[in-house]
Amino acid sequence: MLTLSRTNAEKNGIKLFVAVGIHPMGIPKDWPRVIEALPHWLRRDGVIGLGEIGLHEGSRLEQDVLREQLIIAKEFQLPVIIHTPPQKRMEITNETLEIAASVGIKPEKVIIDHANLDILDLIEGFGAVPGLTIRSDGITPQVLLHNLERFQRGVLNSDYSNLKPNDPLSVPKAVQYLKLNKVSPEVIARIARYNAEKLFGI
User: Fold this and answer.
1) What separation in angstroms does the CA of 62 have from each of 84, 131, 140?
2) CA quadruple 90, 128, 187, 49: dihedral positive or negative?
3) Cα(110)–Cα(147) distance, rounded to whole angstroms?
4) Is-above-0.90 flag for pTM?
5) What is the pLDDT of residues 106-138, one digit of tens each?
6) CATH: 3.30.70.1290, 3.20.20.140, 1.20.1250.20, 3.10.180.10. Which one for 4-200?
7) Nearest to residue 112, comparing CAs of 98, 97, 101, 99?
8) Chain segment 77-112, per-residue pLDDT in tens
9) Contact criterion met (CB below 8 Å) for 107 and 127
10) Axis crossing angle, helix 31-42 with helix 60-76, rounded to the nearest 10
């Protein structure tokens, strides 16, 4: 990601930034070694945050790994991208925020990804930034349009991966959908660009 992907992106006119961390669905057996190595990677050029981290099932192991990474993020004063799972969303999001609060990380440095209306009150109550993942089983362009007032602090993303059916072009498609429905260019720019630039300092 920090070498080939950034170079290829630049050749195509894209300035690529990277976040690094241990995802709860991919915790290695020797995860303490990864935690020890994280500061080295966080100092690399192009790294702007720590993530995607968080809880998926809410196990003690996941909680320990999340806490250790949040401590590092606080030390480096970096933003964190935090995962939310498809199941037990209220319970696990609440557990996640309790861990973040116990570490003392600034809420405005936290983006809670895969946000939706079901956990939005928890996110807003903590003061974190909603990550607005555009996909068929998350926030669709239609849901986004009908709830823009509540989503204006959020950051659009595609969560493009091979874990779920998704569309790498979901963000520009969502932006185009909002434009076609006469949404203010200022509002569109806020959730598609400026909120992310402010959060990640880019």
Assistant:
1) 12, 20, 29
2) negative
3) 21
4) yes
5) 999 999 999 999 999 999 999 999 999 999 888
6) 3.20.20.140
7) 97
8) 999 999 999 999 999 999 999 999 999 999 999 999
9) yes
10) 20
